Amino acid sequence: MAIVKVERPKLSAGEKIYFGAILKGMVITLRHAFRSLAGKSTGAETLKSSGIGVTMQYPEQKWDDQMPEYYRGAPALVTDEQDRERCVSCQLCEFICPPKAIKITPGEIPSDDEWAKVEKRPKEFEIDMIRCIYCGMCEEVCPEQAIYLRPDYAITGTNRSEMVHDKKRLYEIGGKRVGLVNKWNELK
Amino acid sequence: MDLDLPFLIASLIKIGVFIGITMTFVSVCVIFERRFSAIIQDRVGPNRTMIPLSILGFKKDLALPIGGLTQPVADGLKFILKEDFTPSYVRKFFFWLAPALVVVPALLTMAVIPFGSPMEIGSEYIPLAVADLNVGPLFIFAIASLAVYGITLAGWASNSKYPFFGGVRSCAQMISYEIALGLSIIPVLMFFGGLNLGQIVDDQVANGWLLLPLWNEGGLIVTPGYWADPGEAIQRLLLLVPIVISFVIFTTSIFAETNRMPFDLPECETELVGGYHTEYSSMKFALFFMGEYAAMVVGSALIVTLFLGGWSIGFGIDQLLPTGAWWVSLLHLGVFLGKVTFFILFFILVRWTVPRFRYDQLMNLGWIVFFEAALINVFLAALVMAYPSLGLIGVLVGFALLLTVTILLIKIAKGATGKPSVTAV
User: Fold this and answer.
1) What is the ipTM of this complex?
2) How near does any CA of chain B get to the CA of A27, in Å?
3) Residue A21, domain extent
4) Which of A182, B246, B310, B373 has the fewest Cβ atoms within 10 Å of its own Cβ atom?
5) Is there a single domain that holds both residue A100 and residue A118?
6) What digits encode the pLDDT tens for the residues B228-263?
7) Is A11 on the interface with B (CB under 8 A)?
8) What is the average per-residue pLDDT within B128-154?
9) Is residue A89 assigned to a domain?
């Protein structure tokens, strides 16, 4: 490699005095201050600013409508078109879950039930949201397409037991999901 | 000696009020620093501190729409409630003494600043300064320089190398800039012919602020009364040159004295872990910040008093108001505080604008640029002032002499700032 000698830039007398540069800098900072007070900072519009600077103020304003479809938030159970619980409590998600956040109590479907041929559904399905790391492995491993990571991200509670999502809560978050493979349905 | 009871009571009230004002301004500094820096950086800043009634058992917190004005209270409470941890290896006595030594001088210097015009109570005029000393600026420099001990002791007593570096840096920096600080206001004192800050302000009320001589006893600059004595008026305007130089040097030195950006070398996360206050926690740590902000308030107050007319409204309005009425005094107090607030905002703006200096640049600026510039400035101001007695020829000769000395000094200074010799290592 050839050695390139970089010369220091020659400064004019005005530049050496330094005050011009300071004043220029102050004009820039003051312009930022006034523009951010007026809510006209660069990018304020695209970043949906609250009116001061470019900041969106969280609990009042949310970014939810910008959330991508694939966002990995809280894992939740889904039902199909006929309101059947898709989960057959095979417990694969429980076994693969890296932080061991999922706990499933399998239950048998009684023989007089409409979906008796599915044989099993979870009696209890608990996800401890303090443990969950949102890795999405449960979604990946599920052979029944029953568990999905939803875009819910603000999972809060005032104590530990509130942070454990039970079956009811999980279906609440997950809701009904259509357009999946329905291998237990009669083909029509 | 007789005990002057009314004087004693008045002084006590003044001490209480002015310390209250200073401390309020310290918290104003905190909130301004946080919110103004935020809006400079296109952020919002702390805007939702509220009064936490819920911890007292009420249903809801009281959220007043004041844009986070209670933030300093929250900051202070946080500092008080934090654990006050004293490491086992520190030199305890000095470790405890240091924070106090930073705060006390800053608050003491407030004593000579005239906050407002004298108030007439009974038949007596009471100056709105705790001590109307005849050595105001000297007193401020003498006491303010004691803050060096606080910071240096903090660094040394921590018994830990990085705080020590911070303390040493601060010591060298503050001592260097004190010289420029003292020399830069000599033209100002020469102009006023006295060191009493109260009289300096009175003079500015009558003859225009030092930096804005837009009026004198004759009237505003646009009226013929101002030009009653054209020679004197032109001399006054010519005097602006040394005074502006004084102002720039003085303001910059105040920045260095208060350890603020761009001269905040004693505090440095990347080089010194934290600075002279690395080993401090809780309220002792907060005291350093209070000291810094109080010094900033006093510095702004001093700049305002010396260069921008102190409490005067200016433009001849002060003469129209009745002297000594209580509401006039309070109005003047408000004007003074407004000017100080403006300067605090200026301090903050500079902090977020100017990048910090390297340490050798800082020392060069202090010893080679400001020291010489202040010295030459003294003679420049003297020449302008001596014009009536020296006559044109004398002044021109003096100016030529001064120019020669200046050029010579610049030559010498250039040699001093030249490339560091490698062989010296």
Assistant:
1) 0.76
2) 9
3) 13-59
4) A182
5) yes
6) 777 777 777 788 888 888 998 898 888 888 877 788
7) no
8) 84
9) yes
